Amino acid sequence: MVLAGKLITELGIKTPADKFYKLFASELHEVQNYCERVHHTKLHEGEDWHHSDTVKHWTYVIDGEVHTCNESIEEVDDENKKITYKLFGGDIDNYTVFKLILEVINKADGTAAVKWTIDYVKINEDVDTPNGWMDYLSKSTRDIDGHLLKGERVAL
Q: What element of type H or E holds 20?
């Protein structure tokens, strides 16, 4: 049985790509205020939410169950609006590798999209593929997009 894999989804958004990316690049602590599936976030180690040495602790809901994990930023590519997060601890302990990759894309037709990639390696064959994460990311993206659009209309 295969232990390593990748799951990928791409979702169209109505928020401008720069604004959506900015939330994750410099306002990550606000995600819990925009998305009902994220119950709580806090700094676990470090003082800056966006430094690669900082560890954040997340409490979130997937498939109706509360889960926890820690997260650190592995790589940031502002030019391509791409951030790679390393998840570990808590419910991620069933994986030796669990990377969450966010890419915010400006489309040629003037629209934007969010591409999420989960790169994982299971500790053994008995561990499920993290399919519930794709639904979680899709619904969270919709929540965040809607919230950011509401703020944009108020600013007008």
A: helix 17-26
- Maximum distance among all alpha carbons in the chain? 54
Residue 78, phi then psi, degrees to nearest 5: -60, -35
Count of the separate structural domains present in the chain: 1
CATH code of 13's domain: 3.30.530.20
pLDDT tens across 12-42, in order? 999 999 999 999 999 888 888 888 888 888 8
71-84, pLDDT tens digit by residue? 999 999 999 999 99
Distances, alpha carbon 140 to alpha carbons 93, 128, 132, in Å: 22, 21, 12
Q: Do 72 and 100 touch, CB atoms closer than 8 A?
A: no
Question: Could you list the residue range(s) of the whole structural domain that residue 40 is in?
Answer: 4-155
pTM for the predicted model, two decimal places: 0.90
Distance of alpha carbon 90 from alpha carbon 135, whole angstroms: 20
8 Å CB contact between 9 and 105: no
Q: How far apart are CA 52 and CA 130, in angstroms?
A: 24
Enter the tokens of residue 85.
């997060």
Question: What is the separation of C-alpha 107 from the centre of its chain, rounded to a whole number of angstroms?
Answer: 20
What are the phi and psi torsion angles at 24 (to 5°)?
-80, -30
